[in-house]
Amino acid sequence: MKNISAAELNALLEDSKTPPFLLDVREPHEFEYCHINNSHLIPMQSIPSRLEELPEDTPIITICHHGMRSQQVAQFLMQNGFKDITNLSGGVHAWAASVDNEMPTY
After folding, report:
1. Closest to 28 in 3D by CA, of 11, 17, 38, 41
2. Which of 22, 64, 73, 85 is labelled catalytic?
3. Could you tell me which of 20, 87, 6, 24 has the C-alpha nearest to residue 57?
4. How far, in Å, CA of 47 to CA of 34, rounded?
5. Whether the Cβ atoms of residue 92 and residue 103 lie closer than 8 Å to each other
6. Domains defined along the chain, listed by start
7. Where are the strands (E) in 1-106, listed by range?
8. pTM
9. Residues 93 and 8: beta-carbon distance below 8 Å
10. Is 3 helix (H, G, I), strand (E, B) or coil?
């Protein structure tokens, strides 16, 4: 499993012709409070029953609050045959600190 910093993800999103699938694994109330644009919410506990919603041919970036839940989901996805999985180190907290300082933090 790979890790990516918030700054690296921002550069990837700005330069990529084919953006990655941004998978936010937090709870709905967390997602409603703040999230990275174009991210898709599938809470961590729902991942096993919703694998069919994930693209198999697109890189997936897993996202949570600080990067711990998303790291667990990234490992789970790799164990279930997904190949191109990257975890956002520091989660949305790091994104708010280094990329989008107008994003609310909690």
Report:
1. 41
2. 64
3. 20
4. 20
5. yes
6. 2-98 (3.40.250.10)
7. 2-4, 21-24, 39-41, 60-63, 85-88
8. 0.96
9. no
10. strand
The pLDDT tens digits of the residues spanning 7-53 come to 999 999 999 888 999 999 999 999 999 999 999 999 999 999 999 99
User: Sign of torsion, CA 2 67 92 99?
Assistant: negative
Q: 9: which 2 tokens?
A: 């993800």
Our answer to whether residue 34 is catalytic in this structure is no
Q: Which amino acid is located at 32 in the chain?
A: E
Angle, vertex CA 47, rays to CA 105 and CA 84, nearest 5: 85
SS3 content of the chain, % helix, strand, coil (to 5): 45, 15, 40
Question: How far apart (Å, rounded) are the C-alpha atoms in residues 9 and 86?
Answer: 10
Nearest to 95 by CA among 45, 72, 61: 61
* Structural contact between residues 1 and 86, judged by C-beta atoms closer than 8 angstroms: yes
Cα-based distances in Å from 68 to 3, 14, 24, 73: 11, 25, 12, 9
Q: Do the bridges between strand 2-4 and strand 85-88 make them parallel or antiparallel, or are there none, so unpaired? A: parallel
